[in-house]
Amino acid sequence: MNDWGDDSIPPILFREYHNLLTVFLQFLFSGLTVGAVYALVGIGFNITYNATSIINLAQGEFVVIGGLMMWFFYISLKLPFFVSVALTIFTAGVVGLLMERLTIKPLKNPDLLLMIMITIAVSIVLRGILMFSFGKEPYVYPAFTEGEPLNISGAIIQQQALWVVGITGFCIVLLFLFFKKTMMGKAMLACAVNPTAAKLVGINVSQMVMLSFILSAIVGAIGGMAITPISLMEYDKGPMLAVKGFCAAIMGGLGSNRGAVLGGFIIGVLESMTAGYLHSGSKDAVALVILLMILFFKPSGLFVSKTMLQLRKF
Amino acid sequence: MKKEDVLSLLVLVLLFVLFPLLSNSSYTLTIGIFAGINSLVAIGLCILMGYAGQVSLGQAGFYGIGAYVSSILSLHAGLPVILSAVCGMIVAAFAAVILAVPALRLKGHYLAVATLGFGEIIYIILNEWGPGGPSGFGDIPHVSVLGYTLVSTEEYFYLIWVLVTAVMFFSINLIKSRTGRALRAIHDSELACNAMGLNVTAIKIKVFILSAVYASLAGSLYAHYVTFISPSSFSLFYSILVLMMVIVGGITNLWGAIIGAVVITVLPELLRKFEELDVLVYGLILTLTLMFFRKGLVPLIAEKLKKFRGPAVAEH
C-alpha cells in the first residue's frame, strides 16, 4: 500500500507525464510554425544571394509588407480572398522590382560595404512608408479556413498553422522546380555561378538580378500573409525577421534552400522551447546567440559539403 | 598634425565656446549636447569603418553598456561618476574583445550581421534584466568633478564638447601615427599588410575596442546628463543612426563624423512638423547619400572650397 491507497500507478503521475508530452508537443508545433516563416525569409536571402552575392537586409520588410498589404486588401478594402492574395503578391513583386531598379542597378561598381548599407537604407525607407501608412499598431485578419483546431494528444494545432507549413512546403517545391526545370531558373543559377560566362551565352544578367529581387520579395510576402493570422503583424517586425531568416540561411549554408528550411525549423523550435521552458523574454536572444555561434565557429553553415565550401568566400 | 587639422580643431573650439553665448535658449543647447554625444560614437565608428574598413551595426550595444554600467554603479554602488564611467568603458572594452576576436575574422555581410546580432543581444539583456526592464530607471546622479556637481545645460554643453575636442585630438594623432598608416594599409589590402609583417588582426581588434570605448563614454555622458535611461535609446535604430552620421558626413574623414552627427541630430528637429514621416525621411537621406554622394558631405565641401580658392591648387 502506498500513500494513494492502492498499488496501481497513481493517476496524477500519469496525467503529469501526459501533460509534459502535451506541453512539449505544443511548443514543438508552434516552433515549427514560426520556423516555416524563418525558412521562407532564409530562402528569400538565398535567392538574391545566389543571383547577385548581395545579402538583402530589407528581406524582413517584405514579410511585413505581405502581412500588412493582405490586411489592407482583404479587411480594409473587403476584396475577395484570392484577389487579395494576388494583389498582395503583385505589390510585393513591384516593391522588389522598384528596389532593384532604383537602388541596386544604378550603382556603378559598388563595394560590399556600400551594398550592405544601401539595403539597410532601403529597409529604413520601407519601414518609414509602412509606419506612415499603417501606424504602429499590430494588424490581424481571420485564418484562411475556419474550423476546429487539430488535437494531437492534447496539443492544439490551429488550422492556420497547417496553412503556414503547407504554403512553405508548396513554395519550396515550386522554387525547386523553377530552378531545376525551367529555362529562366537555370539562367538565374548560371548568373550566380558565373555572371560573365552567363552573359557570353546570351543570358540577360541584369534582368535575372531584377527577377531575383522580385522573387525574393514575393517569397517573403507569402510568408507574411500566412503567419499574420497567428502572430499579428506590425511595421517594425522586419529587422528581427531578417536576422532570424539570415540565421536560418547561414545555418544551412548560405545559398542552399534545403539548408535554409532545416535551419528555419531548428531556430523556430529552439526559440519556442526557450520561451516555453526557460524564459519568454530571451526567446529572441536564442536566435541571435545561435547566429553568433555559427558565424564565429562555422560560418560555412552546419550542413554544407566540402566542395560547396570551396566556392564560398567569407 | 597637419596645419589644416590644427586649424580645424581651433575652429571647433571657437565654435563651441561661442555657441552658448550666441544662443541662450536651452533648447538649442540641449540639441548641441546630443550632437556632441552622438559625435563621440560617430568618431569611433568612423575610425572603424573609414580607416579600418570594418562595418559595425552594434554601436548601440556599447553605447548602452556605457550608460547602464555607469548609471548602475553610481546609483547603487555609490561610486563617483567619473569612476563609474571608466568602469563602463572597461566593460565595453571587454565586450568588444569578446565580440571582435571571433567576429573580425568575418568579412562584409557576415561581420555586419554579427555586430547587429551583438547589439540586439545587449538590447534584449537591458530589456529583460536591466533595472526597471523596458521602462528603464531614473534618479541617475549628475556628473561631479572634484566635489562640484554639474547641473546646468551650459555646463554639460561645455563638458561634452571639450571631451569631443579631446577625443578628436587623440583620434587625429592616432590616424597620423604608425597605427593609422597601418589602418589605411589594411583598408587597401589585408594580404599585403600580412606580407609586410603587420599583425592585422591585433590592429583591427584595437580599433574595435577604441570605437567601443568612445561609444561607452558617450553612453555614460548621456545617462548622467538625462538622469533617466530606458533600453529604447539603445536599440538597433541608434546603431543605424550612427552609421548614417558617418556616411552622411563622409566615411574617409574624421571631421565627417562630427559634421554628420550634427546634421543627423539637428535634422529631426527641423522635420518636427512631419512627425510621422521622420523614419521615412531618414531612410531617404541615407539612400540618396549612398547613391549620389558616396563620399559624404566633407569631401563635397572640401571640393567646393578648392574651387573657390582657384583651380591652380593641386595637392598631389
Summarize the structure.
Chain A is an all-alpha fold.
Strand content of chain A: under 5%
Gross geometry of chain B: globular
- Can you write the helix and strand succession of chain A as a string? HHHHEEHHHHHHHH
| Gyration radius of chain B, rounded | 19 Å
The average pLDDT value of chain B, as a whole number, equals 86
Q: Low-confidence spans of chain B: pLDDT under 50, at least 5 residues? A: 312-316
Termini gap of chain A: 67 Å
Q: What is the percent of helical residues of chain B? A: over 70%
N-to-C order of helices and strands of chain B: HHHHHEEHHHHHHHH
Radius of gyration of chain A: 21 Å
Of all chain pairs, the largest interface belongs to: A-B, 43 and 42 residues
SS class of chain B = mainly alpha
The major beta sheet of chain B can be summarized as: 2 strands, antiparallel
Q: Report the strand count of chain A.
A: 2
Low-confidence stretches of chain A: 1-13
Alpha-carbon distance between the two ends of chain B: 18 Å
| Number of alpha- plus pi-helical segments of chain B | 13
Described by the principal axes of the CA atoms, the overall outline of chain A is globular
- Rounded mean pLDDT score of chain A: 85
Could you tell me the number of beta strands of chain B?
2
Strand order within the widest beta sheet of chain A = 1-2
Structure description:
The complex is a heterodimer of chains A (314) and B (316). Chain A is mainly alpha-helical and 314 residues long. Chain A is built from twelve helices and two strands, in the order H-H-H-H-E-E-H-H-H-H-H-H-H-H. A two-stranded antiparallel ribbon of chain A has the order 1-2. Chain A is globular. The N terminus of chain A is likely disordered. Chain B is mainly α and 316 residues long. Chain B contains 13 helices and two strands. A two-stranded antiparallel ribbon of chain B has the order 1-2. In chain B, strand 1 and strand 2 form a beta hairpin. Chain B starts with a helix and ends in a 7-residue tail after the last helix. Classes of the chains: A mainly alpha (314), B mainly alpha (316). At the A-B interface, helix 4, helix 9 and helix 11 of A face helix 5, helix 10 and helix 12 of B.
